[in-house]
Structures are given as structure tokens and as C-alpha cells.
Amino acid sequence: MMRLFYSTDKSDTSFSITGDDYKHIVKVMRSKRSDHLEVIDGSGWIYTCEIEDIDRHQIKALILNKRLKEAPSYKLGIAISPLKNMSRFEWFLEKSVEIGITDIFPLICKRTEKKNIKEERAKRIIQSAMKQSGNVYEPTLHSNIDIATLSQMTGWGTKYLAYINNESNSLLATRKFLNPHILIGIGPEGGFVAEEVEICLKEKFTPVSLGNSRLRTETAGIVACQIIKTLHEISHANTIPTT
User: Fold this and answer.
1) Is there a domain that residue 243 lies in?
2) Among the three residues 68, 96, 113, which one is the final residue of a domain in this structure?
3) pTM of this structure
4) Is 188 helix (H, G, I), strand (E, B) or coil?
């Protein structure tokens, strides 16, 4: 696969490419008119394009053909508390997109120290990770939610809450996923307070453990994301008839 570039500035016949992708194409790759590019727009399509024009700020690339990558057969949502050190939260965004997350919910808890994220920067990180990983369906970065909103969320087949207060919690890695729509809540650096746990458990969230280690919030998010993705792939592979 060629290097992918991202743009949503698209007509029926062409893309306009600006910003960092423009700089990389022009200044790093030294691309010229008639060179070919592969462009994504987050919808699952990969467009093969030909550079028609390059000016000082943008590239016009004509669409030659397109192909649709198979959509994920699951929903993988993580509600995770933003972090005081925003670079660590951004690391979570990047790596979770590379793994294959579909929905990201910034979760504001009582112990959350950072209440806001820079949405435009977060989206650029998500788009960069899409290009790097080839996961060309853009995950949805939702607005901030609180515990009450999380507890009432519908449309998810199974909902988990990761926390360490209960040593009897079963390991997430041992769960059997009968429903491909999984949502998991990850608390802030100080953990969930008892009231938040109680609210979620009353609404049929299943408490789970991510293992014996005490993980940072962003690490817990990545571990949960990879476990769920791997178990889904195993489950999906086991349902495919063999010849």
C-alpha cells in the first residue's frame, strides 16, 4: 500500500489537499503534477488520485478510481478520563486508533483533573494514526460525558467497567464476547469513586480486571482496547466455516 493522505475537501471528481499532508507531498516527497497519491476521507474508501495542480497552499488531485475496505464487524468503544498530562491522553488516542477503536468518549469523573481536550488537535492525531495504520474508517470522537450519561448509554451489547477495588473481578481477557458491540469505562488517575462504580453496576455494567499490574489510565485504555480487539478476532475466526 502506498502512503495514505487524508482529506475531506472532496468533490465528485477531485480532492483538495492542504496542511501537513500538503507539506509532506510537496517538500518531503517532492511530488509533481501527474504523480499518483492514495487519499482517504474516513469513510472506508481509498482513492487513487493523480496530482493535477500544485499551488502555494494546496494540491488538487483528480480521482482516478476508488476501492472500499471492508468495514469493522464490531463496535469497540472506550469511555476514558482525560489526563492532566495531555500528551499521555494523545498517546492513547494514537495507539487505540492503530489497534482499531471505533468510538472514543472523554469521560469526566469526580477525580478527573483535566476537564477539556483540544478537539481539533485530537482529531488530527486520530487522522494521522489512521493513515499510519491503514484503519481507514475514522473513529468517532464524542463530546465529553459524565458517569450518569455513561451508565445510561444504549446500543452496546456488553458494557464493562475496569477498576481495581474488587479483587474478585474477572479478567477481561477471559470473557467470551457473544455480542460484537463492546463498551468499556476507564477511570481517571485516582480511580473511580465508590458512587460512580455503584451507578454503573446498577445499570448492568460488568466489573472487570485488566490484570495484576496497577496501570496508568492511558495504558489501561490501550490494554483494554487490544484485549477486546483480539478476543473479537478470535471469536470471529471461530465462526468462519473451514473447508
Assistant:
1) no
2) 68
3) 0.90
4) coil
